[in-house]
Amino acid sequence: MANVALLSAASTSTSSPACRLLLGRRPPSRRSACGGRAASKLSIMAALGEDPIREWILTEGKATQITGVSSIGGGCVNSAQRYKTDAGSFFVKTNRRIGPSMFEGEALGLKTMHDTNSIRVPLPYKVGSLPTGGSFIIMEFIEFGRSRGDQSVLGRKLAEMHNAAKSDKGYGFYVDNTIGSTPQINTWTADWIEFYSKHRLGYQLELASQQFGDSAIYEKGQRLIKNIHPLFDGAVIEPCLLHGDLWSGNISSDTNGEPVILDPACYYGHNEAEFGMSWCAGFGGEFYSSYFQVMPKQPGFEKRRDLYLLYHYLNHYNLFGSGYRSSAMSIIDDYLRMLKA
Predict the structure, then answer these.
(1) Which of 56, 70, 73, 147 stands 20 to 30 A from 204 (CA)?
(2) Which segments within the chain are labelled E, that is strand?
(3) Which residues are registered as beta bridge partners of 165?
(4) What span, in angstroms and rounded, lies between the C-alpha atoms of 265 and 103?
């Protein structure tokens, strides 16, 4: 097998560390402790001769020798290792608590994006269960360059992916997956506004109500959902393949400077929804200019931007707590005023 890919530690986190660090939500000591426990389990598993990761690498991976295993980051959700072999390197993520379904969703998203032949993503090789409990995914190891690459190239290639892959099933995906560690429901739906209202905004609002008893954000959010149709007047909406969680930690470049995106939460949706994490992505003018040359800007784009931010602010609220509530509520209140709802 060719010498393939390194993914960064960012690919193992549940959401945007840059954003969470602003709120002091990523204590290093906790990360180290969690990573250490995951590594210990892998060591015990290897000692017992019950290691499906090594077994796959030494059979289907075409390696005859594993020359080293090193940790390359992770957190309390996933642990990440680089396996060096005589057939090249492999990137492996493991989770001690969750079964294969989470990684199966990630693998299907990666393979679907890979098959568009547009923007580079790590190719998944194998998902399975660990005998000690939990699951793993083995994928291509991409050696990263020193920067995130050219913004204009990123914009163009992302637009090419959106343009190349459109679903005839409607909006959704082949399986449910996760956004961070939050379940993401991808039931096929014919209408985009219905899909986004029910399976994105509505689902997050219900979580906030259940977790925090937040009736205020739930009730205002539901009012917004009932009144969003005018925001889409004049827009041509198609079910494009989306990465789904495109923030700075999931964007890099290879050693040739070509952009790489990873750790997806894929589904088919309105292409503008891809910019929902732009508040933590650093997209600049060159990115958008290049993107819109391939996927023309639709009428009302500016009016809808915050609607797509809202999904991710709500998700961060549900994952990390009240530090994100005010941003979500501010967007809801602004729209209610704009729509006179």
Answers:
(1) 73
(2) 66-74, 79-85, 88-95, 124-129, 135-140, 177-179, 182-184, 240-242, 251-253, 259-261, 267-269
(3) none
(4) 11
The C-alpha atoms of residue 145 and residue 116 are separated, in whole angstroms, by: 23
Q: How far is CA 21 from CA 17, 27, 329, in A?
A: 6, 9, 21
Report yes or no on whether pTM surpasses 0.85. yes
Contacts of 329 (CB under 8 A, 6+ apart): 216, 217, 220
- Write out the two tokens for 316: 């961060």
Contact 301, 234 (CB under 8 A): no
Reference 138, options 183, 98, 89, 66; nearest CA is 89
Instruction: Name the active-site residue from 214, 245, 263, 306.
Output: 245
> Is 245 a residue of the active site?
yes
pLDDT digits (tens, 9 = 90+) for 70-116: 998 655 578 999 999 999 999 999 999 999 999 999 999 999 999 99
Separation CA 11–CA 250 (nearest Å): 6
